[in-house]
Amino acid sequence: MQQSTFLRVEGVSVRFGGINALTDVSLNVPKNRVTSVIGPNGAGKTTLFNAISGFYPVASGTIEFMNNDLVSKPASARAHLGISRTFQNLALFPGMSVLENIKLGVHPHLKAGLFAGLVYFGKARREEIEATRQIDESVLDMLDIREYRDKAVSGLPYGVLKRIELARALVMKPSLLLLDEPFAGMNHTDKSQMAVHIRRIIDNTDVTALLIDHHMDSVMAMSDQITVLNFGKVIAAGTPDEVRRDKAVIDAYLGQD
User: Fold this and answer.
1) How far is residue 105 CA from its own chain's centroid?
2) Which of these three, 171, 194, 211, is where a domain ends?
3) Closest residue by Cα to residue 211 from 75, 87, 100, 92
4) Do both 230 and 252 map to the same domain?
C-alpha cells in the first residue's frame, strides 16, 4: 500500500439542512507523518474530523482508510480499524490517578469477559498487568509524565492533563491518531512542548497523525504537510513553507491565532 492511500478523503461534502458545512473536501494522509488541517473558527475542521470518525454522515464523497471504506462503517467499527481520537475538551476523571486514567484507553480492547473483569482474576488480571507494563515502558516517558504516574489528576497543570489524554489515546495502539485541537487553551510553553511530544510519537512509533488546529506557529513547527480550510472548502495544501507563502492563506488566515 502506498503512503498516499493510508487515509484518503476525496470530494467529501457534509450538509446540515440547507447549509454546506464541507464542500468537495479532499486530502491524502501519508503513513507515519503529521498532517495538519488549519483554518479560522467555523472553517469546517471539526466537521471534517466528525466525518472521518463517523459522527457526521457524508452527503457525498469517499473516505478510505487502509483500503477500508469508512463511509459505510459506524463510528465503533472505525475505532476497531485502528483510529483513535482525542477531543478539544478534556474528559479525564479527576478522582482517579494518572495511571488509572490512561488505562481507561485499554479497556475497550481487553478480551476478558465482564465477570472476569469485575472479580479481577485470571485473564483479566493478566491483561491489566500487561496494560500497566505497556504504559510504564513506553507511554509515560514518551510524554514526560512519569513523575505524575500515581498522582490524582485533579490539580495537575493543564498542559500535563492534555498529555495524559494523549497517552490514553496512545494505549489503544492506534494506526491513525486524530488530534482535535491539541494546542487549545495552552500557553506558549505548553504549545511548544506538545508539538515536540507529537513529533516524538510519529518519529518513534508506527502511528500516523492527523490533527486540526488554528494555532499557526505550533502547527508549522511539527507538521509534514498542511491543508487549509476556509468556509468548508480547501483553499491551500502543501508543506508548511508552501502554505505559509500561499496568497489565499495569507489573505484569509495567516497571522490569526
Assistant:
1) 14
2) 171
3) 87
4) yes
